[in-house]
Amino acid sequence: MMKNNQNVVVLGASPKEKRYSNKAVHDLLSYGHRVYPVHPLGVEIHGLNSYKSLDDITCQVDTVTLYVGKERSTQLMDKIFSMKPDRIIMNPGAENDLLESKAKKLQIEVIRGCTLVMLRTKQF
What we know:
Elements: E1 7-11, H1 20-30, E2 34-38, E3 44-45, E4 48-49, E5 63-66, H2 70-75, H3 77-82, E6 87-90, H4 97-105, E7 109-112, H5 115-120
InterPro entries: CoA-bd, NAD(P)-bd_dom_sf
Pfam family, one: CoA_binding_2
Protein name: CoA-binding domain-containing protein
């Protein structure tokens, strides 16, 4: 469990309310975290303008929570690591063994779990 009021990047955030990444943005906000949703079109999600690229996020990042598939996260791996997050959460369906292995070598904590469950069970 990490500190409250983290800077959290939601990679693969969706404006569609039924998507788990959308629910993650909502719940992270309601738990008091600063949320940086990333969506390639820069759409609004729960009142936040999303970022089109990880390059557009300039703050220190505590957590990157992944809602993209293995192929996409592999493409973005170097950008994710350049943000120097304390941890990466691989939500169900976003698992990536290569990213996990490289992250651990960089001493970045990797959690295979669900952001929503972690928040609700006070494990976030």
